[in-house]
Design brief:
about 325 residues, alpha/beta, Rossmann fold, 3 domains, elongated, FtsQ
Length: about 325
């Protein structure tokens, strides 16, 4: 039994090998019939073309970029933590520089001492006076000085409406100021003297000896008790002066001598050349100013070589609705 088993196995191997050889012979016959030559059958390893090499490199780079992409993702995940850490460091550094020991350390360095101070915008005031008033010295340090505090001190000056402070590193200080522009003088009685009024109705500096007095004078406010009436009176005076400053030939600002207020707040105007009263009453200043402008244009006309306005005793702008009363002297 064992011998037949071995013989049978050998027969199977022999038959398979023979069958394989027959299949190869069929392939050989087929190649011969179709005209293939032995030289056409390349049995050696073929070299890769340039395109194939490029494709291989591209695939390699793709795999590499996938690896780099994963690394970038990891970096992105770590980025918020780094940003938070950097922010904390900057905040801590800013604290120590402005409030902590670093400020004290650098505050004593001569390199950061103020060497140049420039103040612009002075008309009535002067730079030396303002430096002294606001305690601005060359001993200040660029790191320790406080622009807000300097601005506040300067704006407490009676003539300074606005101040701007700018540090010019490493050792310069640039200060620009805006002064109030007076439009009138407000009389506060014999004891309190005069105070300047600007175009917005704001009272500022007290008139000192030798200062400009060539402005219209506002009187009677010291007799007005109610603060709201006083505020309304100042607003009315400011409006009248603003309209007069538009260089109207018949009613220029320089021709206004006095603006008087009664205790009730009624407005009365006096001109320089013709000091008769012009009663405005209360309210509607702009409307009444326009009416007065037209009335004065007629009154300045000459009749028989003499201007009509020379015989006027007073003018009432509050006579009736849309009517003006002009009263002449008996001699006229």
């Amino acid at each position: 039994m064992k011998k037949r088993s071995v013989f049978a196995n050998l027969r199977v191997l022999f038959v398979r090998k023979k069958k394989k050889d027959s299949e190869m012979s069929v392939l050989s016959r087929k190649i011969t019939q179709q005209g293939y030559q032995a030289k056409d059958l390349n049995t050696t390893a073929r070299r890769k073309s340039v395109r194939e090499k490029w494709q291989t490199r591209k695939e390699g780079r793709g795999r590499q970029s996938m690896g780099l992409g994963a690394e970038k993702d990891n970096r992105r995940k770590r980025a918020p933590f780094k940003l938070l850490l950097l922010t904390g460091i900057l905040v801590a550094a800013g604290y120590f520089l402005t409030l902590g020991s670093w400020r004290t350390l650098f505050g004593d360095l001569l390199y950061f001492r103020v060497h140049e101070i420039e103040i612009s915008g002075c008309v009535v005031t002067n730079a030396k006076e303002l430096r002294k008033y606001a305690d601005i010295t060359y001993e200040m340090n660029m790191l320790t000085l406080q622009p807000g505090a300097i601005k506040e001190r300067l704006e407490r000056h009676p003539w300074v409406e606005q101040a701007k402070i700018r540090r010019i590193w490493p050792d310069g200080l640039l200060i620009s100021i805006k002064e109030y522009r007076p439009q009138a003088l407000v009389a506060h009685g014999e004891e309190n003297g005069f105070q300047y009024l600007d175009g917005r109705g704001v009272l500022f500096a007290t008139v000192a000896s030798g200062q400009d007095l060539d402005f219209p004078v506002i009187t009677g406010l010291d007799l007005v008790e109610a603060e709201i009436v006083k505020k309304q009176s100042l607003d009315a005076a400011s409006t009248f002066l603003r309209l007069a400053s538009q260089n109207n030939p018949n009613l220029p600002a320089q021709n206004i001598s006095e603006i008087h207020f009664t205790p009730e707040g009624e407005l009365i105007v006096y001109l320089v050349e013709h000091p008769f009263p012009i009663y405005f009453g209360k309210g509607e200043v702009e409307k009444k100013f326009s009416q007065l402008h037209r009335v004065l244009k007629v009154l300045y006309e000459k009749k028989k070589g003499k201007a009509i306005i020379e015989d006027v005793a007073f003018i009432r702008m509050d006579y009736q609705e849309d009517k003006v009363l002009v009263v002449r002297n008996h001699s006229g």
